[in-house]
Amino acid sequence: MRQIVKLTQCKPVKFLFIIGLLLIMASPAWADLESGMADLQGKILAISTPLAIIFLIIAAWQKAMGNDHLFYAALIGTVIMFSAPQIVEFISAAFGV
After folding, report:
1. Are 62 and 71 in contact (CB under 8 A)?
2. Which residue blocks in the chain are alpha helix, DSSP H?
């Protein structure tokens, strides 16, 4: 009996026991990646659309004050943000993915 108690107090045996227990209890997630990504894309668009409009207003104000660089950067960023889904679809169709 003492040998069993001494064996269970050994760190490698504890480690192997925990690993074995985790392997027995593990199960695959079976997550649907496509619907999860569509949901994530919708949430990102819901957050980024008002932010893009606010940044564009700030950039227009900066252009009125004479800072052209910020205006052009915000304009390009807004165009890319709003056209991102179409750009992804175009690239996917071009490469046959």
Report:
1. yes
2. 2-8, 11-25, 33-65, 68-95
The burial class, CB within 10 Å (0-12 / 13-18 / 19+), for 51 is exposed
pLDDT (tens digit, 0 to 9) for every residue of the chain, 97 residues total?
566 666 667 778 788 888 888 888 877 767 676 777 778 878 887 888 888 888 888 888 888 888 888 788 888 888 887 888 788 888 888 887 6
Max alpha carbon distance in the chain (Å)? 85
pTM over 0.70: no
Which structure tokens are listed for 48? 């980024």
| 8 A C-beta contact, residue 54 and residue 76 | no
Buried b (16+ CB within 10 A) or exposed e, 24-38: eeeeeeeeeeeeeee
In eight-state DSSP terms, residue 9 is: T
